[in-house]
Structures
1.
Amino acid sequence: MKPFSRKDWVAGLSVAGLMLPEAVAYAGIAGLAPQRALLAAFAGCLAYAVFGRSRFAIVSPTSSSAVILAATLASLPDGDAQRAWAATVVVLLVGVAFAAAGALKLGALASFISRPVLRGFAFGLAVTIILGQAPALAGVTVASRELGPLVLGLAASVPHWNPWSLGLGLASLLAILLLRRFPALPAPLVVLAAGMALSRALDLPAHGVAMVGAIRLEPSWPSFPALSSGDYSRLVQFTPPLVLILLAESWGTIRALALRRGDVVEANQEMRALGAANLASGLVQGMPVGAGFSAGAASEAAGAVSRAAGVVAALGLAALVLTAGPLAADLPRPVLASVVIAALTHALDPSPLARLWKLERDQYVALGATVGVLVLGVLNGMLAAVVLSLVALLRRLATPTVAELGQLAGGHDYVALARHPDARGPPGVAIWRPAAPLFFANAERVFVLIADQVRGQGFKAVVVSLEESHDLDSTALDALIEFDAEMRKDGVQLRLARAHDQVRDLLDASGARDLAARCDYSVDDAVRAALASAPTAQGSAQGPEGSR
């Protein structure tokens, strides 16, 4: 890590001003004491500075992980001691999972949550969190955290809304949004300070406005309450979704910031760093931590030049809590709720989702992720969205398009006849190209489709281009051999173009050496070989592509 520079000091102190209100807010989302989030941010930043590689990443509690942690704790019996211990166990499990995945070089897992899933999930999550803050904004209590009962309970409590709480919360939200026009000002910190000043000046508790209470940065010895084996089993079940969302959010942030600046980062190293950060957070009884985009973007905007900025942010956060923590006893909860809502307004931007509808790609996956979070809850919604994404992928692979190819005049290029009317197919030879890799779910369907188009058309040879299939599973291999036998029975020779070495080796190993000998490295070579081996095709009846 490079020595601390002036820019790192400026960036770190700027980020610390953002981390304090966000950490307190995220602890509230998870239903935990504020110091747990603050200790997590302190430990996470320091651990990442040692093991991580991104100069912009700020590893601290995130909104999405806080919501999933809240869902985890809600599945356990009531009791502060049980919830506190369960949260510590979850954080340690997350740390172990990240460290193990990094050691096993499973960084490719970051790609298993697609961007449409993340966009839809983020939109639904933002709506869920904002509605979850609405009771604090209105100064009422709603027992249920589930979206439907929460909305109904909030509507039923309208006559009891506290006008002081609501007015203060809305004014704070408007102030944060207006202060964003001045990037040099830490808007959340300014609004929190103003809220504490107003609390004392107007005696807001006397008007029924709830307060946050004093914040202390004091780790305590863990207690070990009695949890059943079923409770621990539920904690283990909630760990993979938490790891996945932290991985997707953190790697997306780290990679995006690195690409913008030309930095080099590596997924497996970042997973090990996240593992160390979460283990450190668990040891101080913190919360799950990851590289959130808002803090990382703030660090980049402030000009951080090394990971020292994260260390300064951690030290600055500790200094803020030690000096201003007791003053938080005068911090109104509606003001804190407005900080959370303001932090999530960027996630309500519908343009990324609208772009998917314009492209007509993955829009239903993103919509499913959004609806899943809103209807099924955060955990089940995310799992449903990931499953939906995989189903969409399998559907595309299982129903590929098969293009009929022809040759452009005066060249060796073969292109789809449907898109290039000026292309012509060679006489007596049909050329087909599956648009997806052949595997067990689509191989038989592809070869049936080609056979239906070739049969009875007077072709002497058919060329199948396997450029998309770097390898074949046993089902696709059997389907290919059976297709070859069927074509020979009809008097049609099969040749394979652009066949990869793995496919050739597999054909040899399966005993289909004759078919392996009819493999070529280009479509042009395959067509020439087909014409040379079937000279009568020149004068035979031609198929549809021969007449084009």
2.
Amino acid sequence: MWPFGSQARNGAPGRIRHRLGGLALLFIVSIVAVTALSFTSPWRLVELRSFDYLTTIGRPPLPKDGPVIVAIDEPSLSEIPHQWPWPRALHARLIEKLREAGAKAIGLDIIFAEPAVDPQNDDALQAALGPDVVLAGDETLINTPQADQLIRTEPLPRFVEAGAHVGIASVGLDGDGVLRGMPGYEDSFAAEIARAAGQPVVRHEAGAMLQAFGPARTYPTVSYYQALDPQNFLPEGYFKDRTVLVGLSLQTAPDVRASTPDTFATPYTVHTSRLVAGVEVQATLLDNLTHGLAIADTGTALRLLLIVLGALVGALTVYRDTNWITALWGVASVAAALGLAYMSVRYGRVFTSPVGPVLSYLTVVIGQSGLDYAAERRTRRQVTRAFGQYLSPAMVERLANDPSQLKLGGETRNLSILFCDVRGFTTIAERMKNDPQQLTTLINRLLTPLSDEILACGGTIDKYIGDCVMAFWNAPLDDPQHAAHAVEAALRMLEAMDRFNAELQTELAARGEEPYGLRIGVGINTGDCVVGNMGSLSRFDYSALGDSVNLASRLEGESKSVAVPLLLGGETARQAADRFCMVELDRIQVKGRSVASPVFTALKEAPPPEILAEHRRFLDAKYAGALTADDAIFDQLTAALPQFAAYYALMRTRLAVSA
């Protein structure tokens, strides 16, 4: 965060406390909201749908020696020369054939609640029944405005007296019409078949859920007509020591006047969009009961605990910050929650819905990410507002993208400071005293190209002081080449002045006004400074302070004393020497310093080495006091370095005056 206002005064601990406070509030809101949702009906349906996916991932194998299904299907309706419902004598014949083939228990998922039209059919069925046969019953709850009525439908008493067992084949559907729950009847159809086959029935908790093994026709299935003649249609011993379930397995209703076929949506319907025959559902229930595969559902207390745990993990994920690593943690955490839920339901036989903990986790993570994004947007606006007038757009964008490059309050940095002032501006202002608007326009036109060159070289504009510009490099962004960039900006500013003066002369000539030109002086110094927000609590600027700043300002003023537009301090010249040709001009003692220091100027292109050597001899003679005004070296160097003509003329004049 960029240190503005109260954040700057509070410091990092204050921001951390603020973040933790907001995160704690988000943590509580997430738990309360998700917990409230978890008690709604739509929420439960979403959890049940997650059960469908979790229990059908990695299709579980069928238990060994499971039931075999004899299907009353379309091929059987075509092959058997009877109209449905078939005569009960035909079912009696099937029972005898299955018994002869070695079936140890036979379940008929058909309700024989009414006497047959032909009593001989009932006689035949009664004669075939025995303790190895289970007939289906039904329980139906009828809701009326007056009362709820439970109607139980069972086979004819004569069939029960013949030794057949009766099992309730009714099943309960969830709110979305999907069969997932285990029947709550002690005498359910599947339980009675298990008892008839001599298999133990594993008790399960109330509300236990069904483990499905696959879509329709997952169980070994043969057609009814094939089971009537197993010697010709089926492999030898196909039914031996097997439990056999007989029931409808149709794609459509066998009669247009009949009700919907005995089919149900199961967890696999979400993948196949197909219903499963009721007799195959009973086979699944049988395997669940005999092998203890029913899945327990977690209670309310554990469900709420997992919601709290999900929110807690989310808070730990975004405790410090939110970034692309947070997204990776988010994906990993959600995947872990789903993986644990899958392991729980597949190997622990307990359904632990991942919906609650995942939603509470995502609520905290996404909520905090949204808050952080909003805070980042505020930071970007603050950085743009604060530095838009000091830095180039590219530099502002770098700061906005990475505010961590900014330091809270002030810091000591090695800076290159530039001061630029307009020469003779007082005289020009005097000429325009009656036209202040033209004067303002002129100074703005002048400062604009100068500022553009500073920004183009990565400088930070500190302030404008009338016709003076102050800028520095290496803050707020690091710039290892700050001295060279400052010198480059100064040289470009001098070139910009030449272009500006050319345009100005053309305009003055067109208006018939007396021509004049503007000149600038630039001073650059490099040294340690304190840089940061300076000012009062209500108004401050990003600025630099220190002795190096003062020296840069004085170098700008001293540039007039050596008749060159650009004057550099010794450290600036040293750091930028690999980019530009540095020419020493004099040793001067600026105000506030007791020792004279060498000052330099910079050239883009270096003169020939012999010319530089000649200039060095000139300086040595000058420092030694061995130079006179009529020395021929003045003329030689003026001809060789015409850009320093004013400098050599000034040095000669000073010697002549002092002589």
